[in-house]
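Hey, I'm writing a tutorial for new members on how sequence and structure tokens pair up, and I'd like a real worked example in the thread rather than a made-up one. If someone can provide the structure for the chain below, I'll link this post from the tutorial.
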Amino acid sequence: MSVLWVGNLWAVYFRESKESRLLEKKQRSD
């Protein structure tokens, strides 16, 4: 269970970091 939990945590962290980068690019373009 711990392995799946860590994997899920990394997935959420990677998704949020990716979205934040896209938002930064949009703000810079504007």
